[in-house]
Each structure stands twice: as structure tokens, then as C-alpha cells.
Amino acid sequence: MVQTQSLANSGPNSKESIGPKDGRRPRDEEIKASKVYMVGAKDHGLTEPRFLSEVLNMRDRDEKGRPTQFLQIVVPPSEERPYPICKMYDKTATREVEEAKRKAMKATKTKSQEKQLEFNWVVSDHDLGHRMARLKEFLEKGWRVEIVFGSKRKKGWNQKREASPEEANNVLEKIRKTVSEVEGAKERQMQGKVGQEAILCFEGKTKK
Q1: What is the mean pLDDT of residues 132-137?
Q2: Which stretches does DSSP call E strand in 78-185?
């Protein structure tokens, strides 16, 4: 059995040996070689060169005769090794792994695009202006923003002077005016009551 370097990082979507479609490595009939080395299942050593057609015929198939596995290059040929090193992958398992990665990336991206701003109904014009600038910045980026009034996580939130209805409505009006200045931004929902504990949710226009 031919020995080679570690192939631990040679997964089906590794960047080595870019293939003809979507930046991945060549698979099955895309492999342009008469013979291939196969990665051993136990010790990651290599088999002797095998005809590509023979290896493709070894793929497991479903009841309709369709391959449930695919062969993919993990290391391209070189001067020392005339044929590519290949590995057999299960299609279903590979799809599940790729889907899990996609969901994880989407969750990470979504989390990074959510912001929370803490407000008080009693606020100076200077502080309110600063927060409005931040709100506008986030919405222009297409992010989702939560504005929280009376957060219990913030020490002393319930010891501040209670805002008059006029003060509270003035703050709410300025928030909504700022949102209206951002093209495509929308108010999604409001929980709680004006002048008391409340959460306002806004979303910027999603950028394609």
C-alpha cells in the first residue's frame, strides 16, 4: 500500500484541486484521469492505482440504480504521483454536513445583524440624538434593531424619574421619525406601554 501525507483536512469541499463547478474539487466523471489512488478507510494509506471506471462502478446504489456515493479528488496528481488521490463519500451524509454548516453560518450572520439599544423615556436631547444616530446607522445597514425601555438588567432602571406622557410620546415620535428617514425600514412590533417597560422592534431594508 502506498503511503502519503495526512489527509485529515481533505474533506469534499476543501479548496485544494478546484473543480469545474462551483469552486469544488472534481467528482465522478469530472475527474480527468485514467487511474486514481484511493484513500484507505482504516489507516488513511493509499491503494495501488486503480482504473477510474472500475472505482466508479464500485459506488453503492439505491433500489433504482442511482449512486448513493460520489468519488472526489482529495489531492491532485504531482510529479511524484502521476494520478490523483480520491476518496469515496456518502451523498446523504455529505448533504447533512453541508446543511448543518449552512445553518450555522446563517445563524451567525443573523446574530451579527441584530442590535439592541437601551433607552429611557426620560432622556436628554444630546443622549437621544446619539442613540438616534446609532439607530439610523444600524437600519441603513439592513440590520434588525430592538429598542428596550426599562431594562431590568440595567441597575437603577426603576429608580429614575417617571416620564410624563408628553415626554414619553415625544421620545417615541423622534424614534419613529428617525426610522422613517431610512428607506425601506419598518417597525415590526411594540411590546409594553409608552412611558413604561417596552420593546420596539425595527428592521432595515435587507440588502441583496
Answers
A1: 90
A2: 85-90, 114-119, 144-149
